[in-house]
Amino acid sequence: MTLPASLSSEEPKPSSIWTSQDGAGEEEFTPDLFTDYRERCFEYEGETGLVKQCVLGWSHGFCETVWSEVLPQVVAANGTFFHGRKVLEVGAGCGLLGLLAAHTADSVLLTDGAPQEVALLEENCQFAAPGAVVSAELLEWGAKAAAKDVGRRRMFDVLLGSQVTFAPEAIPLLVETIDFFLADDGAAIIYNDRWSFSSSCEECRSIFDSSLKAHGLQVGSAFRPDGPFVAPPGVLKDLARRDWAYMIRITRKK
């Protein structure tokens, strides 16, 4: 996952070609022979057997292909939930969440705020998409950016994000993005167990909750007793063991 480019002051950049789009104030990243992608393959328990998904990812510096495998496990275990739905992944990084959802979803859009991550997502759309219509777009967070970068309001049934609420300055813009894209009867599933060195988990969660409330969005457990989202074995125990971590379901107030 990468923060929107305007909020990432120290984002590591691989050997690459960087250009500025005339008048746009944005950088465009073009992979070259020195861009070092590595393949990683994941297997998770699904509803009817193993769900297998390979992705390309960075292999330099402190970058990790996937920051957490908690939400990927949940997505793989709930294929029926995504069946026939339009899915948006924010802060996608390599796009593992969206690609797992694409095993049953109608369409998936993978987004990130950093051009080098979008180049990686485009590679994974070609290399690793399992069958659904999967595409990648640059998406800065915030309502204005959402309208400019992607399109119309309330167009996605499901939003997914893992490790996207750890930087206080980015959280209100993320919530604007969720509010912009989430369909009237849709759900956003967000997982987080990190926070920035300049903040705390309590501060980040407080900002997140207050921003959601200000936009008329409500928070509930991702795993309701009446379904349809179920927790794979071990995930609930993991969340209980790490009391600073959370996985929530965001919906619009009726």
Report on the architecture of this protein.
With 254 residues, this protein is an alpha/beta fold. Helices cover 28% and strands 28% of the residues. It has eight helices and eleven strands. The relative contact order is 0.15. The model is unreliable at 3-34 (pLDDT under 50).
Question: How would you summarize this macromolecular structure in one to three sentences?
Answer:
This protein is 28% helix and 28% strand.
Please write out the topology.
Blueprint: E1 17-20, E2 27-30, E3 37-45, E4 50-58, H1 70-77, H2 79-82, E5 86-89, H3 96-101, E6 107-112, H4 115-128, E7 133-138, H5 143-149, E8 156-162, H6 171-181, E9 182-192, H7 201-214, E10 217-221, H8 235-241, E11 246-252
Parallel strand pairs: 5-6, 5-8, 6-7, 8-9
Antiparallel strand pairs: 1-2, 3-4, 9-11, 10-11
Helix pairs in contact: 5-6, 6-7
